[in-house]
């Protein structure tokens, strides 16, 4: 059992290193923008690594074979990074720059900003693969990166806390309120984007066309 735990720990460590690679790339972009443009499109970067129990629980819930190969091919959110941007245009700009890097491979992309979920959830999810160079050679590691604005992040946090409190059995009036709040947050993003670009003397850009996964 100890040998198995040690092997699983080493397996998860690769995902931590992959997560660190993505965070480093984003941090470099943020610092470069701060120095050269005086506008930092990235407000915050956070990350999390699924625990052993979390991975095993997901395997059981999805009926996935408990093997390293099955985990590697079936679970894409072991390593997760969340990027909070000031404006919607910043989200698309950072996504374009990150995914254009030569050692970053895009496995899938889901744009819930252009196409919100029915409950109002907005975010842009990208599954990336990056190389991690270990003592015995390079390995490809999958990392899920979520991009959203401050308003989207605030709404998602409130929605998560609400569903957690009610054990996902949320009263309909609260569900309706959350949907209305999501629409309000989207309008706020649009207004703040327009004001930002008016202040800086140029028109607001059109959102990028993003590949749908």
Assembly of the depicted chains? single chain
Counting DSSP E segments of at least 2 residues, the number of strands comes to 5
Percent strand equals 15-25%
What is the radius of gyration?
A: 19 Å
Q: What summary fits the major beta sheet?
A: 5 strands, mixed
Overall mean confidence score, pLDDT:
89
The assigned structural class equals alpha+beta
Number of helices: 6
Write down the overall geometry.
flat
Termini separation (Å)? Answer: 39 Å
The neighbouring-strand order within the major sheet is: 1-2-5-4-3
Residue ranges: pLDDT <50 for 5 or more in a row?
A: 206-213
Order of helices and strands: HEHHEHEEEHH
Give the fraction of residues assigned to helices: 40-55%
Structure description:
- The chain has helices at 2-36, 52-62, 68-74, 88-99, 150-165, 172-199, and strands at residues 42-49, 79-85, 105-111, 124-134, 137-149.
- Helix 5 packs antiparallel against helix 6 (172-199).
- The relative contact order is 0.14.
- It is 51% helix and 22% strand.
- It has six helices and five strands, in the order H-E-H-H-E-H-E-E-E-H-H.
- A hairpin with a 2-residue loop joins strand 4 (124-134) and strand 5.
- It is of the alpha+beta class and 213 residues long.
- The N and C termini lie far apart (39 Å).
- The radius of gyration is 19 Å and the shape is flat.
- It has a five-stranded mixed sheet.
Q: Which features would summarize this protein structure in a list?
A:
6 helices, 5-stranded mixed β-sheet, disordered C terminus
């Amino acid at each position: 059992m100890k040998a198995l735990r040690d092997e699983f720990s080493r397996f998860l460590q690769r995902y931590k290193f992959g997560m660190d690679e993505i965070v480093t790339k984003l941090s470099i972009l943020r610092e470069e923008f701060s120095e050269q443009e005086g506008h930092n499109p990235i407000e915050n970067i956070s990350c999390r690594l699924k625990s052993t129990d979390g991975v095993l629980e997901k395997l059981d819930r999805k009926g996935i074979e408990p093997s390293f190969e099955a985990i590697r091919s079936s679970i894409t959110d072991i390593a997760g990074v969340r990027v909070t941007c000031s404006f919607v245009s910043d989200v698309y700009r950072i996504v374009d720059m990150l995914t254009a890097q030569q050692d970053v491979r895009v496995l899938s992309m889901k744009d819930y900003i252009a196409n919100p979920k029915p409950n109002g959830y907005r975010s842009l999810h990208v599954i990336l693969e990056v190389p991690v160079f270990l003592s015995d050679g390079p390995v490809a590691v999958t990392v899920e990166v979520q991009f959203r604005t401050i308003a989207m992040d605030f709404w998602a946090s409130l929605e998560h806390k609400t569903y957690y409190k009610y054990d996902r059995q949320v009263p309909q009036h609260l569900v309706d309120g959350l949907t209305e709040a999501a629409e309000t947050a989207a309008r706020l993003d649009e207004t703040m984007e327009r004001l930002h670009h008016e202040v800086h003397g140029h028109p607001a850009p059109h959102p990028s066309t993003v590949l749908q996964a």
